[in-house]
Structures are given as C-alpha cells and as structure tokens.
C-alpha cells in the first residue's frame, strides 16, 4: 500500500502521521553517522528456511493434488476409497512388484464387472483446491490386464458430489505405460476429490495416479503452487536453506534425507514416511509422507528462480538426537561423505562429470553455483564433531572454495552451545548455525547478542528462529504482532552486527491451516489461499531494505537497543543511493523522534514504511490476510533530518535519497 504525501513538512517540526495519537514523551534525537561504515551487508543476509513440515512440501508447495498417488503409504489405501456407481460392481487389490520396481513396488488392480462405473476416489490433502476455468493435468501409469480393455472416466467432484471437471483415458497397452489427459474445472472448490471410474467389464492395473493444476509456478508441469512460490519470491531472499531442519536427520537413519533418491523420474523416487508424521502426539499426521516430487533438482531450481543462493544441509551420519540418536560408525561414514562430494558435483560439475552429466540430463546443463552447504542440522556433542571434521577435510580437499556450515546445537546458550561454540571457534569453522525459538521478551533482551562476538571468528548463520507467543513447540503459539515486533527489534541487532551475522532465516516457513504440526510459521495456507503473517512482513521489510553498508544510529551516543522500547539500525544503499533507518517502537505510546544524519547530503525524496497494530495480539488470517501489512508514504526531505512520530507498537523503515 503506497500513499503519496506531497506537502509534508518535515524539518523543524515533527509531522504527525497519527494526528489523534499524541506522544506523551519528549522528542528524542537519533544521530546517524553515515560516513562511518561499520559493516558490509552480505547479499545473502536475509533468506528462507524450507522444510517439509506442516505440509509445506507434499500437500503444500508441491502442487500434486493426489495423496498417496503410488500406494506406497504404510497403509496402501490411505487417502483412497472404493467407489461404486449405481449398478456397478467390482474389486480392488493391492499388488507388489518389488523385483521389477524396488523403489515403487505397489500398484492397484481394479476389476470392474460392468459398464456402470466402479473404481476409486482420492481425498487429496484435506481435499483438493480447484479453481474454476483452470486446466488440470491428469496422468496415470496403467497396464491393461484383460481383453477387451476398459476405459477410465476421470472426474473431479465437489463437496456435494457433483462433477466439476472430467476426461476419459483409454489404457490399451498390456505393458506399463503413462497416459495423460487434461480438462477444465467448471467450479471453484476447496475440498474437491478425484474419482476414477473403470467403465466396462475388465481389469486394469494403475499406479502413479496424479493430478496437477496447469497454473503452477512458471507453468512447469508437475511443478509448484504458484501463489506460494510467489510469496517466497516477494521476500527477495538471499538464500534458500533446504531440505530442513530435522527432516535432514530422520527419526532414524533409515528415514534420513538422501538427496540422490530425490532426483530423476518421479515414479522412482522412493517415498518414505515424513518424520513429522509421528513427532507430536497432540498433532498426529498419519498421512504425512515424502513423495520427493519436490526433490533436490527442484530445490536448486526454486533457489535459482527466486534469486536465492542454494544452501543445502546434508546428513552427517547421525539421526535426530531428540529421537533415536542412531549413529553411523566412523569407519562406515564414507558413503555419507561421498554423497556430500557428489552433491557439489551435481550442483556445479561440468557436464562431463558423472553428476554434472546427470544434472544436464535432467534438463539443467548450467551449474547452480553452489558455494555453501551445511553438515548436519541440529547436532551436538563429541560424536558430531568427529563426523563433522571428516566431512570438512574431504570437502575442503576437493572443493576448497566451498563454505561450510556447522551446527551449534538446538539452543542459543547453555552447556551444549558453549561446548560446540568453543570447538567451532577453535577450528575456525566458516559458519556457525545458531537456532533460537524463544519468547518475544528473549528476542528483545538479546538484541545485543552479537555486539561482543569475535569479529575475526566464524560467521554466524542464524539458521532458525521465531518468537514463540506461549512456549517453544506449544500448539497454542500464535503468529501475532507482539512476536513479529520482537523479531523486528532483534533483527536490528543482526543488522548492526552484519560483519558477524551473514545469514538469517525465520523458521519454519509454511503451514497448512489443517495440516500443521508446528506453530508459529511464516506463511499459512489452505488449498486455495495463503497469507503472510506479521512476521512475514517483518522479514520482507528487512530483506527489501537491507542496504549495502551498516552505519551507526545512536541515541545519546549509544546504540539504540531498547531505550524507551525502541530498537534501531541504519544502513546505506550504495546502489540506490539511499540512507535507510529502521526503528521499532515496542512502547505502548507513540514517540517523537528526530533522525539527524551527518556525512551524507540528502536529496529531496524520502519514504516511510510502517508496519503497525494498536493490538499486539493482532494476527493475519485467511479471511483477513492483511490485517497487518506495511503502508508506505512518500515525503519531501529538507535539510539533514527527518522528524516524525513513531506510532505505538510500530516497525518503521525510513528511506532517504542521498
Ligand atoms: O523448525 C522446526 C524444527 O525446529 C526444525 O526441523 C529443527 O531444526 C528445529 O528443532
């Protein structure tokens, strides 16, 4: 939202953006020394953390609408039901062809007895979100068992059972073959189902039953949900961390993330249970699996599409230390290390290398320019470091340019943290990955956390953080304005210390309103809609206004770290030639502020973007997606200062042409 205020008088007096809300305290003068560059802001500074938790991948950004498309869930018919049109009869049978197809052994045999229509219906992921006049692409692997052959009537049905789109497929081959068709939807429906009726007397084998909308991101067949990727693109993220999170580790080693199993033909990407399926007894998700339709090639492409540096995290030979703690013996670690080396070759290798050739064969001859990767997610203790060092040695030897990220464990302090921190600093690790899920109060109190970090030591990757309104992991946590405001306050500290903190990402990223396990999350969605939380807009404002060089902003010669509830940082944008000031007023009263700069000469134009709510408990929602959203006004600058009233509970970004 942008409002143009041409007649603003800015100098000599405070302009009141909120005429009815009078500040109750004296004007404070903030000084910006724009000639004193303190740090360079890395282009990677604000990025995104992606993990398939909360149905972020399957049932979320991966636009497949059919749940359990290959009958590989532990209960092979989960998501499916038998369906009989009037007068029809038949039977279904799950069969297994492990020897022939070890990664996708199961399929369904449908035997129909008449023309009337017997078959299956799929419930989707909490239904299927269907849009009127949108085209839907259906595909199936099928094999006709009997002669004469049968036909398949494909129908989308709405929640009243009415058909809202249909097509026919004639699977005639006696060998497995892919059949495709597409059709338009006649109605918008958030909870549609897909019905497949076998017409005629006969038997057909079916597998990989799939339905995708055509309007995926960049219209890629079998691609990603457009509205959700757009939300990521709108963040202009510096990096994309993937695929997690704990999902990297697996509850046990068997279910760890193995990138090589996630590329190539989707029918051969071996489906496994999602570790969040069983993690929380209070949020059981028995139908949560990983199809890996969103696999490593797609992650790299996504990063490329949205202009983010790829940042894969790989398993280090340890399963989740909160779960099974399974460990790969040191003398059996070699395949894990090889996976890491091969990943670099897959991303960057020449097309004549083994893995570069694979990348090219998958349609991406151009390298992905991978520069950084993480070894292990949230790991700790001596057994982690023994393993980490083996990876480090091998990767450094072959790819000396690669930067590596090591874990500091799951907490931002305490024994585990201190132990890890000491080792990693003594080893001169490139990046230390710190995680903090804490109260809003913690975030505000920790705004100076990085002020005293060793400027010559490892760089910090604040790889996962989010303010928790109740307590970490509580299902009652809300994405409210209080949390977002605390994050905004804390982030002034990240920015002030951009020489030490080079990357930061909020976590987790996505959550389906019906399918989540963990809250809070940055972006919520249902089958058709999505919204950014107040935290989303905080992240976006930081990312879009990161500037290039940090300069000091002080109040009475001190950094602004909570005086009267205010937190501030400032930066120059050497590309757009602007001075950027960020200030968060967490105070329940408006505050008069005069920002005076020295060291640069201002031009005439300025803008103020405000994210604010009078109610710290305010949230955004599917029905009110923009209850909190940034609003921008433009103004004319005169002299070397801007005076304004900071609204209560507000995050303000001031940009002035210099
Ligand atoms: O973001 C949710 C989880 O929190 C991540 O998977 C894990 O790394 C952390 O404990």
Task: Provide an overview of this structure.
With 658 residues, this protein is α+β, with helices and mostly antiparallel strands. The protein folds into three domains: 146 residues, Golgi alpha-mannosidase II (Immunoglobulin-like); 344 residues, Glycosidases (TIM Barrel, Alpha-Beta Barrel); 134 residues, Sandwich (Jelly Rolls). Helices cover 16% and strands 32% of the residues. It contains nine helices and 38 strands. The strands form seven sheets. Strands 1, 3, 28, 31, 32, 33, 35, 36 and 38 form a nine-stranded mixed β-sheet that branches. It has an eight-stranded parallel β-sheet with strand order 4-16-19-20-21-22-23-24. Helix 6 links the parallel strand 21 and strand 22. The longest helix is centred in the middle third of the chain and has 17 residues. It is globular and about 90 Å long. The N terminus is likely disordered. Alpha-L-arabinofuranose binds next to loops.
């Amino acid at each position: 939202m942008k409002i143009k205020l041409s007649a603003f008088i800015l100098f000599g007096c405070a302009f009141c953006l909120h005429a009815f809300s009078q500040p109750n305290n004296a004007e404070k003068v903030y000084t910006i020394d724009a000639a004193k560059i303190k740090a360079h802001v890395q282009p990677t500074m604000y990025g995104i953390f992606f993990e398939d938790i909360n149905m972020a991948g399957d049932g979320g950004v991966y636009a497949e609408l059919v749940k359990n498309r290959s009958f590989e869930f532990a209960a092979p018919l989960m998501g499916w039901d038998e369906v009989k049109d009037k007068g029809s009869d038949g039977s279904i049978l799950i069969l297994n062809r492990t020897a022939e197809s070890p990664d996708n052994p199961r399929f369904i045999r449908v035997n129909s007895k008449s023309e009337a229509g017997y078959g299956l219906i799929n419930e989707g992921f909490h239904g299927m979100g269907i849009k009127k006049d949108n085209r839907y692409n259906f595909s199936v692997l099928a094999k006709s068992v009997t002669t004469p052959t049968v036909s398949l009537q494909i129908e989308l049905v709405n929640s009243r059972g009415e058909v809202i789109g249909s097509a026919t497929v004639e699977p005639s081959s006696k060998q497995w073959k892919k059949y495709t068709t597409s059709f338009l939807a006649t109605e918008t429906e958030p909870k549609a189902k897909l019905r497949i009726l076998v017409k005629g007397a006969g038997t057909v084998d079916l597998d990989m039953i799939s339905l995708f909308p055509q309007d995926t991101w960049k219209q890629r067949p079998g691609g990603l949900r457009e509205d959700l990727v757009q939300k990521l693109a709108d963040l202009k993220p510096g990096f994309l961390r993937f695929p997690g999170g704990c999902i990297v580790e697996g509850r046990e080693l068997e279910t760890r993330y193995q990138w090589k199993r996630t590329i190539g033909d989707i029918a051969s990407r071996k489906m496994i249970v999602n570790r969040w399926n069983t993690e929380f007894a209070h949020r059981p998700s028995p139908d949560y699996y990983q199809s890996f339709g969103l696999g490593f090639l797609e992650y790299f492409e996504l990063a490329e599409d949205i202009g983010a540096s790829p940042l894969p995290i790989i398993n280090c030979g340890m399963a989740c230390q909160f779960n099974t703690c399974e460990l790969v013996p040191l003398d059996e670690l070699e395949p894990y290390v090889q996976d890491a080396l091969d990943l670099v070759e897959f991303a960057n290798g020449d097309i004549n290398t083994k893995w570069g050739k694979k990348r090219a064969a998958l349609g991406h001859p151009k390298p992905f320019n991978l520069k950084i990767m993480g070894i292990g997610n949230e790991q700790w203790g001596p057994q982690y470091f023994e393993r980490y060092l083996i990876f480090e040695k091998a990767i450094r030897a072959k790819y000396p340019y690669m930067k590596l990220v090591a874990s500091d464990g799951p907490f931002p302090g305490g024994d585990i943290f201190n132990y890890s921190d000491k080792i990693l600093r003594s080893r001169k690790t490139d990046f230390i990955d710190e995680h903090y899920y804490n109260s809003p109060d913690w975030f505000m109190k920790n705004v100076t956390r990085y002020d005293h970090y060793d400027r010559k030591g490892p760089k910090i990757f604040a790889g996962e953080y989010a303010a928790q309104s109740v307590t970490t992991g509580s299902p009652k946590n809300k994405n409210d304005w209080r949390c977002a405001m605390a994050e905004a306050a804390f982030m002034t500290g990240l920015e002030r210390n951009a020489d030490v903190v080079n990357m930061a990402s909020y976590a987790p990223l996505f959550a389906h309103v019906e399918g989540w396990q963990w809250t809070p999350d940055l972006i919520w969605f249902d089958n058709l809609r999505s919204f950014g939380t107040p935290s989303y807009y905080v992240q976006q404002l930081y990312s879009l206004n990161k500037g290039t060089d940090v300069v000091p902003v002080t109040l009475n010669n001190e950094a602004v770290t909570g005086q009267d509830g205010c937190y501030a940082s400032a930066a120059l944008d050497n590309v757009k030639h602007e001075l950027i000031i960020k200030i968060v007023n967490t105070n329940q009263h408006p505050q008069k502020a005069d920002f005076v700069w020295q060291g640069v000469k201002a031009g005439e134009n300025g803008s103020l973007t405000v994210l604010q709510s009078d109610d710290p408990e305010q949230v955004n929602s599917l029905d009110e997606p923009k209850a909190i959203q940034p609003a921008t006004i433009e103004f004319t600058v005169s002299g070397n200062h801007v005076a304004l009233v900071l609204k209560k509970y507000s995050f303000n970004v001031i940009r002035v042409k210099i």
